[in-house]
Specification:
Radius of gyration: 16 Å
Distance between the termini: 14 Å
CATH topology: Thiol Ester Dehydrase, Chain A
Number of domains: 1
Structural class: alpha+beta
CATH architecture: Roll
CATH class: Alpha Beta
Largest sheet: 6 strands, antiparallel
Helix content: 10-25%
Number of helices: 2
Length: 140
C-alpha cells in the first residue's frame, strides 16, 4: 500500500514526563499508547463541528499497531505526535501517527477506530459532522 500525503496533519506537542521513562532510560513502550490517545483526543476536539455537543462520542479503538524506530529518553523539549486519516468508511476509520522531533522519528503507529452507539451497545454510522472533520485530515 502506498502512503499518500495528508491534506493536513494534526500536530500535538507531547512532553516526555519523568514517569514515562523506565529503568532502561527510555520511554516505556506502553506509554506510547498514552501519547497516541492524547493526540487523538486533541485532534477530535479542535474546532468542534457542533458547539455544545460532544464530538466523536462513542468512538472505540478496535486495533493498534506500533513500530518502534528508536529509543526516546527523558528530555525537556516535547516531541510532536503527528496524526492524519488514511481511510474512512461508514462505521470505521484509520489513523496514522508519527512521533518525532527535529532529530528524527521515534515511532510510527496506526489505529483503527469504530463508531459505537453507547445507548444501543452496538456499532453506528459516522455522522456527517464526524465525516467532515475526518476529511480535513484525510490523505488525498
Amino acid at each position: 500500500m502506498v502512503e499518500r500525503t495528508p491534506a493536513e496533519r494534526h500536530i500535538y506537542p507531547r512532553t516526555v514526563r519523568f514517569g514515562d521513562v523506565d529503568s532502561q532510560g527510555h520511554v516505556n513502550n506502553v506509554r506510547f499508547l498514552d501519547y497516541l490517545e492524547d493526540a487523538r483526543f486533541g485532534m477530535f476536539h479542535i474546532d468542534p463541528y457542533n458547539a455544545g455537543d460532544d464530538p466523536f462520542k462513542g468512538l472505540v479503538v478496535t486495533r493498534h499497531e506500533i513500530d518502534y524506530r528508536r529509543p526516546l529518553g527523558f528530555r525537556a523539549a516535547p516531541v510532536r505526535v503527528e496524526t492524519w486519516v488514511t481511510e474512512v468508511r461508514a462505521v470505521r476509520f484509520t489513523l496514522r501517527y508519527e512521533i518525532r522531533d527535529d532529530e528524527g522519528l521515534y515511532v510510527t503507529a496506526m489505529s483503527v477506530m469504530a463508531a459505537y452507539d453507547v445507548e444501543r451497545a452496538g456499532p453506528r454510522r459516522l455522522t456527517e459532522g464526524e465525516l467532515a472533520h475526518l476529511k480535513r485530515f484525510a490523505a488525498v
